Amino acid sequence: MSNQRIDPNYDLCQFQFANGKCCGMPAHPKYNGLCLNHGTIHKRATMREDDLYNELASPSGAFLSQAEINQALGKLFEALAANRISPKRAATLAYIAYLLLQAYAGLKAETRLTELQGAKDLHMLLKMRYGPALRKEAEKRVAEGVTQEKS
Questions:
Q1: Exposure of 13 by Cβ count < 10 A (0-12 exposed, 13-18 middle, 19+ buried)?
Q2: Structural contact between residues 52 and 84, judged by C-beta atoms closer than 8 angstroms
Q3: What is the pTM of this model?
Q4: Is the Cβ–Cβ distance between 76 and 58 less than 8 Å?
């Protein structure tokens, strides 16, 4: 059995599959002997990649807020609904966004703990440095206030 076509009068797609069979679609004049589908496969794949990068990239250049991550997830959902991205790739990007949100929540909690610890340290230092003097001054004011009320 040969891979050659019986009637060469018809201009058919020259794409050959892995099993040796040829595509049976009519060739498109614009794609050098390939049909519209096989002639645009490479163009569609590269166009998707560039398109998604520009759409999913954050305006600030980094994911700094939950709002920007949420915006990127919305655009990812639109791309998946329009079938411009594979479900596997969309799931991977959504998982990365989930990890970014988890890291953001952890950083927020860590920052809050650092602020609280800093306030405690400052209070302790002030108490160590000015504690006895402030206590004496407060007692003096209370004593003066009591004597003024009696008068």
A1: buried
A2: yes
A3: 0.43
A4: no
pLDDT digits (tens, 9 = 90+) for 14-63: 888 889 888 888 888 888 888 988 888 876 655 555 567 777 777 777 76
Residue type at 44 in one-letter notation: R
Residue 126 host element (H or E): helix 87-150
- Dump pLDDT digits (tens) for 101-138: 888 877 777 777 788 787 777 777 777 766 766 667 76
Domain-wise residue ranges, the chain: 1-39, 40-150
- Taking the C-alpha atoms of residue 123 and residue 142, their distance in angstroms, rounded to an integer, is 23
Angstrom distance (rounded) from CA 11 to CA 17: 17
Residue 22, classed as helix, strand or coil, is strand
